[in-house]
Design goal:
Blueprint (H helix, E strand, L loop, with lengths): L1 E6 L4 E6 L5 E4 L7 H29 L3 H26 L1
Antiparallel strand pairs: 1-2, 2-3
Helix pairs in contact: 1-2
């Protein structure tokens, strides 16, 4: 099994192979500020979840199960609200 360790402070990603005991270092995150990565995760992950929730809500709407459609669309809008709250927080 391969475990993945991301060192945010140095911006270097290491892959450790449990059987081979070898270390592969890649500079995928070199030069990217840590705050930018955190902002991307805080805003990107809820938007991805919102899109998935909206898709499920649309599916229930097409099946004419309006109560569950409302539930899933509400989850989607809640995630959009989280992104808006994070955006307003970072602009102050």
């Amino acid at each position: 099994m391969i475990s993945l360790l991301i060192l945010m402070r140095t911006g270097t990603m290491f892959l450790y192979g449990s059987k081979t005991k070898t270390v592969l270092a890649t500079g995928l995150m070199d030069g990217i500020p840590t705050q930018m990565i955190i902002d991307l995760l805080v805003k990107g992950c809820p938007l991805i979840a919102a899109a998935l929730y909206a898709t499920v809500g649309l599916g229930y709407f097409i099946r004419k199960d309006y109560a569950w459609s409302l539930v899933w669309i509400s989850y989607s809008l809640a995630n959009v609200g989280l992104v808006l709250a994070a955006t307003e927080r970072t602009q102050l």
